[in-house]
Design brief:
The protein contains 14 helices and 18 strands. It has about 400 residues and is α+β, with helices and mostly antiparallel strands. The chain has 2 domains: about 210 residues, 2-Layer Sandwich (Endonuclease, Chain A); about 160 residues, Endonuclease, Chain A (2-Layer Sandwich), CATH 3.30.870.10. Helix 8 runs parallel beside helix 9, helix 9 runs parallel beside helix 11 and helix 10 crosses helix 11. It starts with a strand and ends in a 9-residue tail after the last helix. The relative contact order is 0.15.
Length: about 400
């Protein structure tokens, strides 16, 4: 862990660490302080019994902790939720509706992200003025109980405040501007110290629609950062490495860029681990599916790819555990992590070729920190040796084998 002025970067390498860090941020909010949450999948108000993991236990306490802080300590809780699957009929218990209604009734300042501007608000962000958790992990029962393989960072100090100003605040302000329900009329304004502390170790990244940032071009910071990282790897010294663990591998433009990097730098140790079910689902849809095309592009040009082992859900759900990581690590120096999948849906803007096509709203972070990068490299190599397979069918069945080659 390196100190950045008064800031620290702490890698979170599994769901247990992520949920407990999020809970510590909520618990650590001071009376009258603000808590900021932007999440795709919120827990339901009543989830049923825990399966006994630390993540499962922590997840089931999120709403009770928030309610206590709101009602007892007068903490101001600002929440941007996904609104992609709500119907307006709470009896149907559709995605996030019960959570949105419940938090509103408890006194949280909660707004659905305007669904006409993005496919989904896919962010995974929890913070106060002193600490932020940014991760790949949804705040859902499935992510806590399985638990899906997820990673993130706990970032404290000025770098955390930068994240609230640069990542959360634009989402909130745009949600207020576009609030059709009128809830925001009852809410206090989001007053923030908007000073950004210069920081060469932590850079916050967005895939905001141009309407949100009121910008003339549809910029995509996360995609641009991946492009620059891949290009840097292409020109790196011999024996350099670039490792990627992702839920998906379907961004065709970036797949070509990876191929070009390997051609320019043959000694580059370039590897990719992905979720097997995403690939198998794409395969069933035929070769036109981008998940299959991008995989074949990279695999057929000899970039090593493996499929992560996934296990059945402990509660017997049909949806299995998912390999849900979304990170890249380069040369013990840099890590990109957050909510963005390696897909056009996550990393491209709202307009593709001049045609309007809603994409996800994501938050990622670029961390330049040697100890964090080494922690992520170690996780990748451990997953590559012990928890991944060349055959997606074996990986999807959760084969409990010994070491793999």
């Amino acid at each position: 862990m390196e100190t950045i002025g008064r800031s620290k970067i702490i890698p979170l390498l599994n769901a247990d660490q992520i949920f407990q860090a999020e809970q510590s941020i909520i618990d650590g909010a001071l009376p009258g302080e603000n808590v900021y949450i932007s999440h795709y999948s919120l827990p339901k108000p009543q989830e049923g019994p825990s399966v006994g993991t630390p993540a499962s236990n922590s997840q089931r306490q999120l709403f009770s902790k928030l309610t206590f802080q709101i009602q007892k300590n007068k903490v101001n809780v600002f929440v941007v939720a996904d609104n992609s699957r709500t119907s307006g009929n709470y009896a149907e218990k559709t995605h996030n509706e019960l959570a949105i209604k419940f938090l509103h009734e408890q006194g949280a300042y909660i707004l659905p992200y305007p669904k006409d501007y993005v496919a989904i608000n896919h962010s995974k962000f929890v913070g106060n003025s002193r600490a932020v958790v940014i991760s790949s992990c949804n705040a859902s029962l499935h992510s806590a109980d399985a638990p899906d393989d997820n990673t993130g960072f706990l970032i404290t100090g000025p770098a955390a405040q930068n994240g609230i100003v640069q990542a959360f605040a634009p989402q909130w302000k745009f949600s207020v501007e576009m609030d059709s329900a009128g809830w925001s009329k009852q809410y206090p304004p989001l007053l923030l110290n908007s000073v950004i502390v210069p920081d060469d170790k932590v850079r916050w990244l967005n895939t905001a629609p141009k309407e949100e940032l009121h910008q003339p071009e549809d910029a995509t910071e996360i995609r641009e950062t991946y492009e620059k990282l891949i290009d840097e790897a292409a020109g790196a010294p011999p024996e350099s490495y670039l490792y990627l663990e992702h839920f998906d591998l379907s961004h065709i433009h970036l797949a070509f860029r990876l191929l070009l990097a390997k051609e320019k730098n043959p000694s580059l140790d370039l590897r990719f681990i992905i979720d097997p079910n995403q690939y198998l689902e794409g395969l069933k849809n035929g070769k036109q599916d981008a998940r299959v095309i991008a995989y074949d592009l990279v695999k057929n040009r000899s970039i090593p790819i493996r499929f992560a082992r996934v296990l059945p859900h402990p509660n017997g759900e049909e949806d299995p555990q998912r390999f849900h990581d979304k990170f890249a690590v380069f040369n013990d120096r840099k890590v990109i992590n957050g909510s963005g999948n390696f897909s056009a849906h996550s990393l491209d803007g709202n307009k593709l070729g001049g045609i309007s096509h809603p994409r996800n709203r994501e938050i990622d972070v670029l961390v330049t920190d040697a100890e964090s990068a080494r922690a992520y490299r170690s996780k990748f190599l451990d997953d590559w040796i012990y928890r991944s397979f060349a055959d997606p069918e074996i990986a999807a069945k959760g084969f409990q084998g010994s070491k793999t080659k």
